[in-house]
Amino acid sequence: MPIFILKDYDLIMSLDKLQQKKLFKWLKDQAGCHKTGLPLSVLAGLLSGLLIIIQAWILATLLHALIIESPPKTTVISLIIAFIVIVLLRALNNYWREKINFSVGLHLRRHIRQQVLNRLEALGPAYLSQTTAGNWSTLLVEQIEDLQDFYARYLPQMKLAMMIPVMILIAVLPINWVAALILLITAPLIPIFMVLVGMGAADVNRRHFIALGRLSGHFLDRLKSIETIKLFNQSAQQTRLIQQASEDFRQRTMEVLRMAFMSSAVLEFFASVSIAIVAVYFGFSYLGELNFGDYGMGISLFAGFFALILAPEFFQPLRDLGSFYHAKAQAIAAADSIYQFLYEDQLVITNNPQKQLPLPLKQIVAKDLEILTNDGKQLLGPISFTLQANKHIGLIGKSGIGKTTLINALLGFLPYRGSLTINGIELNSLDLAQWRKQISWVGQNPYLPATTIRTNIVLANPHCDDQTLTNMTNVTHLDEFITQLPEGLDTPIGDDATRLSLGQAQRIAVARALIKPSQLLILDEPTASLDKASAVIVNQALASAAQTRTVITITHHHDDLSHYDEIWQLSEDQLIVRSTLL
């Protein structure tokens, strides 16, 4: 089960420096998939810095001329126009830079989210079922979304925080070396105190994510089970549990905000002190108390304006880096869970080299098969069986004995020891994506996306023609109620198929499975939740499909097993194969 879900708040170990460095390096490595975005963002930032220097020079020249020299109107108008042009250019450049930054963050978030989805697909439903949907949504949505500012702002700002101050120092140094020296000496104070204040920020954000995951899981699970909670009169107790999770999340959120505000206050304080020192220096210089720093040329009003205008801009990249520092801590906290899930937690089924399955399906053979969990613990076995093509198998056994485990192994979602071959090729050597394309599955409560009936039916075979679709609706008796709908096949079914009855939804699921050109059909109690009339319709549709495909049906109905070719009875660590019931 995922580490990021099981750890209790009070038992969370702080992320050590080595782990933080590893996660930071991994986050930076992910940026390699967008090679042009970050350099363009840095280039736009440098251009902004250059425009700031030009703007400061124009403004200082204009003020010096108006106060000291009384220039002609043409000169003043020219400087004002130049100033306005630079301001507009800065605005356009900042707009371009923001677009680039957002694009970089969007691209990299999609890239990382796709990695997580691919991992989830490889691990399969056996792993997904170990954790609540709320926790998965936190990982896939909130935690990955919280990487946006790291890629869009923090990474580019790391480079700009060094480059732009150097550019400003180079511009100020020829004007007044004392002002440049003051900026140079005070600049390191900001990153030093930023690090001191930000110590532990990653752990604070990590606790915040775990609190959010727990709250999401609590709320979503209770919402889905609200009828059961009311039935057993547990409303008050469950409300208290949600309230506790909410209060814990509130406390973790306030910890994050407290650290963010403290960091901002420290940065603003030191930047303000540094600018004040520059202002005091020029003030005393104009009073004649200080007579150094001007290279013997005298301190002009232009020099004072130029240095004082650029002083806040000198610290702005460092202040921005400080304000984005929480994005780094937030990203590292999120990356800890993502990295563990992607690389550390689970044994992934290895299937290299990926061999192509020769079709059609002829037989599936298991010899001394032991099915394992993703972390290597034995779930079932050893068992042996041979499944010939076009046979209809009834898989029976008491609840919890391992029927679904066996199906998950056949689907390639669980690792195993021993031998499990498809047409003579080991399953863990096959291209699992190709193998799963040969399988259709119908469960007790199949999921139907909130689209139209047509889209749900053709989900696994989107290129089927209208005649095939019509035939399938006839076989599954969907036409009996579709013809009564104003929009027919294009009728939206709503969330969780709320516009359909249970039997209608199950028939759509059966049609979706049968319209797929598959070799193996797996049925997990497809009529368990249906009334007798609906069950008869579904069984008729499945019976017609069983004539041309290999079918495995998990069933608890032991009263009528005559229509199966073989009965597989699963008991403790053995599989008994019978052609008829004794």
Automatic annotation (TrEMBL):
GO terms for cellular component: plasma membrane. One of its GO terms (biological process) is cysteine transport. The chain crosses the membrane at residues 42-68, 74-92, 160-179, 260-283, 295-315. It is found in: Cell inner membrane. Residues 40-330 form the ABC transmembrane type-1 domain. Residues 364-582 form the ABC transporter domain. This is Cysteine/glutathione ABC transporter permease/ATP-binding protein CydD. The lineage of its organism: Bacteria, Pseudomonadati, Pseudomonadota, Gammaproteobacteria, Orbales. The gene is cydD.
